[in-house]
Structure formats: structure tokens, C-alpha cells
Amino acid sequence: MATQTAAQRKAAARKAAATRKRNATARRAKNTKAAAKRTASSTRVTASTSTSAAKGTATSAERTAESGLAAGAATLNVVAAQAERAVLIPVGAALVARDNLVEAAKPYTRGRDSAQRRVQTDIRKFERRGTTARNRFQREVKRTRTRVERELRQRRNQVTRLVRRNRREAERQVKAARREVRSQVERVQDQVTSLA
């Protein structure tokens, strides 16, 4: 069985860490979506007991929450595409490097010692170039991930604030409707009592 080089172990560890982070992000998005649905559901139940104006408020809150979640899902698709690129680019680079290495090794097959030194020098040069490209790509992915996470947090906070505001408004309208009904009931009871 072939042993892994330090670079290969490091690459495998980074890949595993990226997979764990993607999975954690997906779980957080799923939990956020479920919480938004529960909030929308409780808003619908509260709104159904109030006047038609309260129903309209709850419906608009639900639509806003769903549109925010759809935007979050679209952002997750962008992250998935970036992750796929992260896998495909190193594979393509490795194949191009292998082809270049085979072509570069052909003239050196005559003198073994000097050819071996040249091949090792070229391999080190290719490895350094590959490391530079990998580091550049990782920085780009990290910047993109940070931006996407920031946008998701901002959108989630906006939706949460909107749902809270709409819920408070719906509850206010329900209380007002209850007070109005109670006052009318008491008025009717007073009139019935005065007639009797």
C-alpha cells in the first residue's frame, strides 16, 4: 500500500474539514428553515382568531419568511457549486502536471543521474506552483464562504425581525378585537339587565 505524503495528508484533512463545514452549514440552514416555518405556523394560528386585517399581516409575514428562506437556499446552491469547483480544479491540475511531467521526462531518459536531478528539480518546481495555486484558491473560497455566511446571517436576522414585528402587530390586533367584543357583550348585558 502506498504511503501518503504530508501534502496529501494535509489536502485530505482540509477536504474533510470542508465537508464537515458544508454539512454543518446545511444543518443550520435546515434548522433555520424549520424555525421559520414554526413561527409562520404560530403566526397563522394567532392571526386566524383575529380580524381579517390580522390575517393579512400573518400571511405577509409568512410570505416574507418564505422568500428569505428561498434566498438562503439559492445561496447554499452557490456554496455547493464552489465546493464542486474545489474538487475538480486540483484533479485537472494534477492531470495537466502529469502530462507535462511525462513530456518533460522524455529527453532525460539518456543520462540517468543528471536526468534524475532535473526531474526532481522540475517536480519540486511543479509542487511549489501547485501549492501556490491551491493556497490562492483556498483564500478565494474562504472569502466567498465568509461573504455568503454574512449574507445568510443578515437575511436570517431581517426575516426574524420582520416575523417578530408582524407577530406583535397581530397580537395587538387580536387583543383589540377581544376588548371590543367584551365591551359589546357587556353593553348588551347591561341593556338586557335594564330591560328586565
User: How many helix segments?
Assistant: 3
The main sheet comes to: none
Indicate the proportion of strand residues. Answer: under 5%
Q: What is the global morphology?
A: rod-shaped
Low-confidence stretches: none
Oligomer: single chain
The pLDDT mean sits at 79
- The number of distinct structural domains comes to 1
First-to-last CA distance: 101 Å
Structural class: mainly alpha
Global Rg: 32 Å
- Secondary-structure element order, N to C: HHH
Instruction: Work out the number of β strands.
Output: 0
Report helical residue fraction: over 70%
Record keyword descriptors for this entry:
196 residues; mainly alpha
Q: How does this model look, in words?
A:
With 196 residues, this protein is mostly helical. The protein has helices spanning 6-48, 52-105, 112-195. α1 runs antiparallel to α2 (52-105), α1 packs parallel to α3 and α2 runs antiparallel to α3 (112-195). The longest helix has 84 residues, at 112-195. It has one domain (21-185). The protein contains three helices and no strands. 11% of the residues are buried. The termini are far apart.
In summary, what is this structure?
By secondary structure, the chain is mainly α. It contains three helices and no strands.
Furnish the topology, listing elements before pairings.
Layout: H1 6-48, H2 52-105, H3 112-195
